[in-house]
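Q: Give me a backbone?
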Amino acid sequence: MTPRPAAGASDVPRPSGPPGTAGAGFTALPDLALRTLGGSVIAANDESFAERENLIRPGRPGFRPHTFGAKGQVYDGWETRRRREPGHDWALVRLGMPGAIRGVVIDTAWFTGNYPPHASVEATAAGGYPTAAELESADWVEIVPRSAVTGDAEHFFEVADERRYTHVRLNMFPDGGIARLRVHGEVRPDLSLYEGLGLDLAALENGGLVTGCSNEFYSSPNNVIAPGLARHQAEGWETARRRDGGNDWLVIRLAGAGVVRLAEIDTTNLVFNAPAAVTLTGTADGDTWFPLLPRTRLLPDTPHRFRIEGAPPATHVRVDIHPDGGLARVRLHGFLTGG
């Protein structure tokens, strides 16, 4: 567990890691439950002191001491009333991106005298758009067993399960407050919806993933394939300044083997730190790379769209930026080939 800095230091970064260590590899994977990726806390049995929606908000939890409302100290998290009867409290989360869960983070940030002593997480896979009531009879699987948690700390739990899940249920025993729930994993969408249609082959929500990157000094490269538009620079990918004469790059594993027909390279919000140019190459076997887009000039703070003509199917696309800088989004529109 990683203790939190002193009150008022909510902007101080905290290291990530499994219980008792300083690093957890699964946290590099997307947070499938994140609100900005489409997640939703669709139900909770109680939220008397702080709203359930806070659980999946982006960013580290904040805290302002001596900030009181009608229900007491305001917390950036989910907090229930003091339970006076048997049982436990729970919150039900619909994953914004269904997938295989690799690890869970339960963060009790700033909850020091009101955290739950134990917590667990269950998961289920449900088709369509079930209500909370309909999910009561679902087949739930315990992916994080009932475990001890402490106050004001992040708790990391690795998950070894290849099944695809659409919802998780966070249980705390018996009551209290949890600031954030992170559900990291690999996106596994239902691509049958796109049969006969085009799609963004790079999109995180369609199963795309950044599998290699030269530099992620300022922000995660997976940001460039996230849903929606970047609202500011931190929601894109930005590298450190290069001083060695080389260039930065990332590799995107596509949703499946497919043919790219249109590339969108968006430098929105990158005004003085956009790359000068971009190059795209593809591969279907990991050894032989073929050109998709020759080195092409980019402008700052601009969404660019380039037609790709006559390209063979690819499973991965490499995006080279010259020499360094940042991108807000990368979209690679095309068609799955089934290969």
Q: What stands out?
A: The longest helix spans residues 132-135.
